[in-house]
Amino acid sequence: MCLTEDQWKRKKTVVIIKNEAIAKDVYEMDLQVGETAKEIEPGQFIHLYCRQGQRLLPRPISICEVDEKKGRLKIVYGIVGSGTKEFASYSPFETIDIIAPLGKGYQWESQEKHSILVGGGLGVPPLLELAKRLPGKVEVYLGFRSQPFLVENFKKYTDFVYIATDDGSHGTKGTVLDVLKNKSECPEKARVYTCGPKPMLQSITQWAVEKGYPIQVSLEERMACGVGACVGCVCKIKDLQTGEWQYQRVCKEGPVFNGKEVIWNEES
Amino acid sequence: MCLTEDQWKRKKTVVIIKNEAIAKDVYEMDLQVGETAKEIEPGQFIHLYCRQGQRLLPRPISICEVDEKKGRLKIVYGIVGSGTKEFASYSPFETIDIIAPLGKGYQWESQEKHSILVGGGLGVPPLLELAKRLPGKVEVYLGFRSQPFLVENFKKYTDFVYIATDDGSHGTKGTVLDVLKNKSECPEKARVYTCGPKPMLQSITQWAVEKGYPIQVSLEERMACGVGACVGCVCKIKDLQTGEWQYQRVCKEGPVFNGKEVIWNEES
Amino acid sequence: MKNLKVNIAGVELKNPVMTASGTFGSGREYGEYMDLNQLGAVVVKGVAITPWKGNPPPRIAETYGGMLNSVGLQNPGVEVFIEQDIPFLRQYDTKIVVNIAGKTIEEYCQVAERLADADVDLLELNISCPNVKEGGVAFGTDPRMVEKVTREVKKHSKQPLIVKLSPNVTDITEMAKAAEVGGADGLSLINTLLGMSIDIHKRRPVLAMGVGGFSGPAIKPVAVRMVYQVKQAVSLPIIGMGGIATGEDAIEFIMAGATAIAVGTAHFHNPRASLEVLEGIQEYMEKYKVQELKKIRGIIK
Amino acid sequence: MKNLKVNIAGVELKNPVMTASGTFGSGREYGEYMDLNQLGAVVVKGVAITPWKGNPPPRIAETYGGMLNSVGLQNPGVEVFIEQDIPFLRQYDTKIVVNIAGKTIEEYCQVAERLADADVDLLELNISCPNVKEGGVAFGTDPRMVEKVTREVKKHSKQPLIVKLSPNVTDITEMAKAAEVGGADGLSLINTLLGMSIDIHKRRPVLAMGVGGFSGPAIKPVAVRMVYQVKQAVSLPIIGMGGIATGEDAIEFIMAGATAIAVGTAHFHNPRASLEVLEGIQEYMEKYKVQELKKIRGIIK
Ligand SMILES: Cc1cc2nc3c(=O)[nH]c(=O)nc-3n(C[C@H](O)[C@H](O)[C@H](O)COP(=O)(O)OP(=O)(O)OC[C@H]3O[C@@H](n4cnc5c(N)ncnc54)[C@H](O)[C@@H]3O)c2cc1C
Ligand SMILES: Cc1cc2nc3c(=O)[nH]c(=O)nc-3n(C[C@H](O)[C@H](O)[C@H](O)COP(=O)(O)OP(=O)(O)OC[C@H]3O[C@@H](n4cnc5c(N)ncnc54)[C@H](O)[C@@H]3O)c2cc1C
Ligand SMILES: Cc1cc2nc3c(=O)[nH]c(=O)nc-3n(C[C@H](O)[C@H](O)[C@H](O)COP(=O)(O)O)c2cc1C
Ligand SMILES: Cc1cc2nc3c(=O)[nH]c(=O)nc-3n(C[C@H](O)[C@H](O)[C@H](O)COP(=O)(O)O)c2cc1C
Ligand code: FES
Ligand code: FES
């Protein structure tokens, strides 16, 4: 019933191994997390704490890649506000407080034959570790506003990496869905895994449903606790049997949900 | 009427040259302040800002010593709360934000013959630069709870340095007033300069008044602006002619006041 | 070891540290991060007679030294609570406090009545939630309503009844006195202030509801002031809360007059916050040789 | 360059940035740190009909993200103000707003009357100071008194009259409406919250007065909420304040409904805070191509 001292999860202070810009206002950070690296499922996230005491709430960032041997995690974050700006100022060998891992990641079968991964913008990173672990054929569709990132990393694990950019500066001009419709061989059976802005998730879900593919989407919501205690980070999830909906916690039941169960009409 | 860009006083970011413990919970910090070092009067103070954003108010710390040539200031501070604890964690070559100098320092005549300096605990540091600058004979009385600091520094400028400690571990056991009464040659004319806890300032003032010596005391009060704008840092000062009192600003009219004008009965 | 025991309305807590309602779920989640046996009491999130869906997201906004929430008392209802949460919490050697929510006086009474035979130690009447349209704070800002709802719920309660007050009032002592007259056995204060934060890039409030409940270290001076004022005005035991993150914060509340204290928002910054608060209280007592908390309780006059 | 002009009760300010009363002295002190010509207006500290000694020290306490003060309106009286401060401020191209203090309605009226022929642009009626026993907040927490004092002072005022409201009330819109009915030409909000901080080592409140006025970034969510609520309730122009330290903070207040904004406590952290707020507003306008502030004022509905 009661956990012992070493079984408790905890906030840990870890060393930053790397913290570099990989695109405009996008940073890659490697963290030395030790044994924790062994516990990660792709699609899970970590909580990063700011040093500035006026910023109390942790920042949730998805796990991008895991190096179990070295005991390291890679995350990729965009500078969007005060906290991520603070993170960008840190140097290697400094420390940062984190809780890891949190949430429920993507699910797949050990015999998986065909997977379609679709990421948009800062939704691209969490798909990398997934691409690495998935068995079978893996198609990857990545959308960016302009400057792509992590593309080479994906190419290490699959030959089928397709890029879309809003401004056409790289890959196909247009949305990732456009490319997906054009390029995917659309097998009989496949699973779709996606992460990105809500409108994209919604349109990919619609496409997947039409194709009859199971689809998993990773959602974002503003968080406080990250452990399921405050019921702050909810999204509307419907029961496919009863049609009833309830608010579920992105940090606990998610961030990865069955796309078909998500009710999209909430403002985002 | 209007100042030009380079005439405005400002908050400046300066480099920490040294930051070391010199006694239990007492630190000495040297700051590279450039030309500002030339503007200092002994008894003035500076404002130090914390990095942690939840600590908004600056910490007032007296100027201990000035090196005009190198453009440096020395301050000595005790760890008493969260801000001073934060300062103690800084390393050389890091920076800190300050405003310097602030307030009105000690006053003396260019022909000064005999000066008596009396400091207690963290009231000792501001007397050092004064001891250095005063012409004529300078007697220095320093009181500590137990472990003295800065004593050697004073000895560089005068041979008449006397120590009292509460526990008798160094110098005479007892108060600095005891030593003063025993050791001072009590010339006909002298000026007294003092800084330390209020009860000490009060008893030294009483002694000086009995002897007929002019006395200057340096007061402390909790501050917000440090520039005279908020009227937060007041002490009760009476007009010796009219007997009327009013609250005066420690940061602007002080921190150094005529001891005879101070009304001591406020709680401290 | 100093004596940390405190007594709230006849219920003895092994120490004064409780968790603030709504910030600690039903104990289960943070139970993975700390030993719940060490807490004086676990205060569970607001429980209503039927399941409540709560408010739309975003429900959380960060502010300078604090946060806003507009959870709106999402909860699965008292039946689920009795079935799942009480047995879970009873595994631990800690007291159980149930925060009860309602849209009408009748609903509050129903929850209290349903809990009468349940194995819980204290009831905390939440008439101060700023995030629900009906009930909640509407009851907590009018002294006549405070008195009335307290009196009615008290009739249906078997456990001692703590009334949780809203800080969004001109005179907190009026509300405290009204609760006392209504028969409260103790007071909890403060619930959240009412705040708002605007996303200037999206040109809309951060919270979907517009306004929300403001908590965290930022609000501590208001909370300490109110505990102090209420201590001077009534003789009921007070559970103090609002921004407590360290043992020193807790001592401030105790000196202001609190018998017990609750840690809320601080958990989000540090999952072990409540235990660290407890350690900090112990350190203070050691340092100043305070044998029991009674010696410093309400020492500020 | 964007158009930053705003109009408060017929007085045109070159930009919306003012200084919060009591935090900026009479402009002289911070005039050594910045160009006062750049400010929309300087609001001077509270001025009474006779000199006030103010409260005993300590008057200042730091809190998490904020501070408490109990200055108690120490001021040398309106005569000294007219003699020394007006001529000083008139050297600058900025508007002068006088914050008027009183212990009775008569005293407020006397100050307004004495200022009728003085060269000042706006009066700000301070019925919300929590640090004085008489007058101050006692007037600001009862809508009938708000209306009455506003009406009386208005009779003696030549300049437009801004009424400064206290946040320590259950319903701020009631006070705003009362001021409107009483004839106010505008509203300032918020004055300080009432807070307390205890020195647990000395076992007494940090402030000699026990409680004090709570200001700074910590209180911003309460201030934004109140500006928003008042904007929905009355049609008077609002001067918004409470925790503003950046241009983004200022934009929040403007979107909530403020016509102008005032910077207070932020000066203590950064003497040039008000100018940096102004620069921040300009940057926001540039970035989002906002031609005039009217386009975003009260955009949150
Ligand atoms: C499960 C999950 C995974 C995420 N993974 C990534 C990732 O891999 N890379 C990445 O760049 N971003 C990711 N995000 C978004 C990221 O958390 C926010 O961009 C970040 O918290 C913004 O912090 P800030 O201090 O810079 O912004 P500010 O706006 O200053 O933050 C203020 C508060 O708002 C919250 N907040 C602001 N924007 C968001 C947002 N879009 N979603 C949730 N909370 C927000 C912050 O957490 C903080 O509490 C993820 C979010 C979630 C919920
Ligand atoms: C003119 C002047 C000169 C000073 N010179 C020195 C010096 O040379 N060396 C030294 O060690 N100390 C000096 N002090 C005292 C020093 O300012 C405080 O010890 C320091 O601000 C405490 O900060 P803190 O964050 O550690 O304490 P906290 O208690 O955490 O500070 C909280 C707030 O209280 C204020 N405060 C706390 N204690 C005092 C105090 N005793 N006096 C004034 N404000 C206080 C702080 O400035 C801050 O705003 C001086 C004070 C004044 C007014
Ligand atoms: C996310 C969240 C949810 C809350 N839910 C409840 C609740 O259900 N019932 C209640 O009485 N108070 C609730 N509160 C208020 C807290 O119990 C507490 O009174 C308040 O947050 C102040 O304490 P703090 O600053 O330590 O968090 C909630 C607070 C937060 C932050
Ligand atoms: C030290 C201090 C003194 C103040 N004096 C006055 C005053 O004389 N008259 C007044 O109306 N408000 C006074 N105030 C309140 C401010 O004008 C302002 O309303 C409040 O501080 C909130 O703004 P801020 O958080 O930006 O400081 C004072 C505030 C402080 C901090
Ligand atoms: S962030 Fe608290 S429940 Fe998800
Ligand atoms: S600290 Fe503001 S007047 Fe001295």
Report on the architecture of this protein:
The complex is a heterotetramer, with 2 copies of chain A (268 residues) and 2 copies of chain C (301 residues). Chain A has 268 residues and is of the alpha/beta class. Chain A is built from 5 helices and 15 strands. Chain A has 3 domains: 98 residues, Translation factors (Elongation Factor Tu (Ef-tu), domain 3), CATH 2.40.30; 113 residues, Nucleotide-binding domain of ferredoxin-NADP reductase (FNR) module (Rossmann fold), CATH 3.40.50; 50 residues, Dihydroorotate dehydrogenase, electron transfer subunit (Dihydroorotate dehydrogenase B (pyrk subunit), domain 3, Ribbon). In chain A, the strands form 3 sheets. A 7-stranded mixed beta sheet of chain A has the order 10-9-8-7-11-12-15, sandwiched between helices. Chain A has a 6-stranded antiparallel barrel with strand order 1-2-5-4-3-6. Chain A is globular and about 50 Å long. Chain A starts with 11 loop residues before the first strand and ends in a 10-residue tail after the last strand. The model of chain A has no long low-confidence stretch (mean pLDDT 93). Chain C is α/β, with parallel strands linked by helices and 301 residues long. Chain C has a single domain, classed as Aldolase class I (TIM Barrel, Alpha-Beta Barrel), CATH 3.20.20.70. In chain C, α3 links the parallel β7 and β8. The model of chain C has no long low-confidence stretch (mean pLDDT 95). Chains in contact: A-B, A-C, B-D, C-D. At the A-C interface, β13 of A face α1, β5, β6 and α9 of C. The site of one flavin-adenine dinucleotide has 23 residues of chain A, from β4, β5 and α1.
